[in-house]
Write a structure and sequence with these properties.
The chain is an alpha/beta fold and 415 residues long. The chain has helices at 48-52, 58-66, 106-120, 125-136, 158-163, 166-170, 192-206, 228-238, 250-278, 300-305, 327-333, 355-362, 376-388, 402-408; strands at 39-44, 73-79, 81-82, 85-86, 139-145, 175-177, 183-187, 212-216, 283-289, 311-315, 339-345, 347-349, 372-373, 393-397. The chain contains 14 helices and 14 strands. Helix 2 packs parallel to helix 4 and helix 13 (376-388) runs parallel beside helix 14.
């Protein structure tokens, strides 16, 4: 990211320190490839397999994870949050679906019933996942969807009631705003209270036997808008109203990026503190959009330079099948100790079921809409390109085919 003349690291006046940030971060430790020259990382969204009925108990989750024992998978990212609720018993936020009596789709009720039963049995799902990963020889990273809350008008408000936290409902003043003050649904990281809420969830997850945290910025932007703390700070520093400038003004983008960098730094500091108690390094990774990361407030150049990340995933905020030049990012990360992975989205066509579609399917009046996905041959050919560009491995999203995982780590670079 190009910095304007006289640029200095800066934070809005209303920022509060979440942790002492003077501590030097532990050196990055990129995940080691497993059973292959290249690493394969997979993300389990912690929701879909409950929705579809594949996960009905902790034993089902363990069985799925143990199937990765002899594959090339080196890291399993377990997503513990949907919206701003979690899939384990929490003291910070609510369990997915708690307090809801009417669910939008059959699968949503199945998710809640299963998670509630697991929680009531005394099992902490995050710990159960970590235990299974270690039994299978994998690293376990807890994955935070950075901003997944839904607008209250969607699906008759039933899905937001299921997934959006009480914190979201109680604090509309902390949401992203448009230039005219319009509510843009997502919580804004411009507010110290939002950053603290997210960090408290991460700290709770880090109490379990995980090996690191993944910050998933592709689920879902935006993270900043035109919130009053940012507007006020920009006026004080530059004497201008940012709402009157182009959205890509370098000073405006950098102001927001500095706020997010300090959040990432606070997560790194929290992990270092937890790692000291556990006597081992806890990793930090981020999945970002290769085109939009600057606009979203992700200063990955700074994150890499400051040694905050153990691995970086470059992807695109669309359906799968996209391509882009990974080489500039590999060059950016050279010498930092951070691994760089190409982020694949398996699904190429289709969409999530709406509540109305689910009712029609249940009544036998509609067939489930088809969804296209990348084939094994496509994965193999694509991986060769990413490895030729210098990728340390591949990150898989919405992919469950063991054959894909077994082959990807051993693909040779394209000649």
């Amino acid at each position: 990211m190009k910095r304007f003349a006289g640029w200095k690291p800066w934070l809005p006046a209303l920022t509060v320190a979440l942790l002492p940030l003077t501590t030097t971060a532990a050196p990055p430790e990129a995940p080691k490839p497993r059973n292959a020259p290249k690493a394969v990382v997979i993300n389990d969204d912690g929701f879909s397999a409950f929705y579809g009925g594949a996960y009905k108990s902790p034993a089902d989750v363990r069985k799925r994870i143990l199937a990765y024992r002899d594959t090339q998978v080196a890291v399993l990212e377990w997503c513990f949050l949907s919206g701003s609720r979690v899939n384990y018993p929490s003291k910070v936020t609510e369990l997915i679906g708690d307090g809801v009596t009417e669910f939008p789709r059959r699968g949503d009720k199945q998710v809640y019933d299963t998670l509630r039963a697991i929680a009531d049995s005394g099992v902490n799902l995050t710990q159960a996942v970590a235990d299974a990963c270690h039994e299978a020889g994998l690293l376990c990273y807890g994955s935070l969807r950075m901003n997944g809350d839904y607008p209250p008008s969607w699906m008759g408000e039933s899905l937001p009631r299921m997934l959006n936290s009480r914190f979201w409902w109680d604090h509309p003043e902390f949401r992203v705003r448009g230039t005219k003050g319009e509510d843009r649904t997502k919580l804004s990281y411009a507010f110290p209270e939002v950053r603290d809420f997210k960090l408290r969830i991460l700290r709770e997850v880090a109490e379990r036997d995980i090996d690191g945290i993944n910050l998933d910025f592709l689920r879902h932007p935006a993270f900043f808008g035109y919130e009053e703390p940012l507007i006020k700070a920009f006026k004080e520093k530059f004497g201008q109203d940012p709402r009157e400038l182009k959205a890509d003004d370098a000073r405006w983008l950098q102001l927001r990026a500095d706020v997010m960098t300090e959040f990432v730094r606070s997560v790194r500091a929290m992990l270092d503190d937890a790692g000291k108690r556990k006597g081992r390094h806890l990793g930090l990774s981020a999945r970002v959009d290769w085109r939009e990361y600057r606009a979203w407030g992700c200063d990955i150049e700074r994150w890499l330079k400051d040694g905050l990340l153990d691995y970086l995933v470059l992807a695109q905020h669309t359906l799968g099948g996209y391509e882009f030049d990974l080489a500039p990012f590999v060059k950016m990360a050279k010498g930092t100790g951070c691994a760089v992975y190409f982020g694949e989205e398996a699904i190429t066509t289709g969409h999530d079921l709406t509540a109305q579609e689910d009712k029609l399917i249940a009544a036998g009046k509609m067939k489930p809409p088809p969804r296209g996905s990348l084939s094994l041959d496509q994965y193999r050919a694509r991986a060769a390109k990413w490895y030729a560009a210098g990728a340390d491995g591949v990150h898989l999203f919405n992919e469950g085919d063991l054959a894909v995982m077994r082959v990807l780590g051993s693909v040779e670079a394209a000649k």
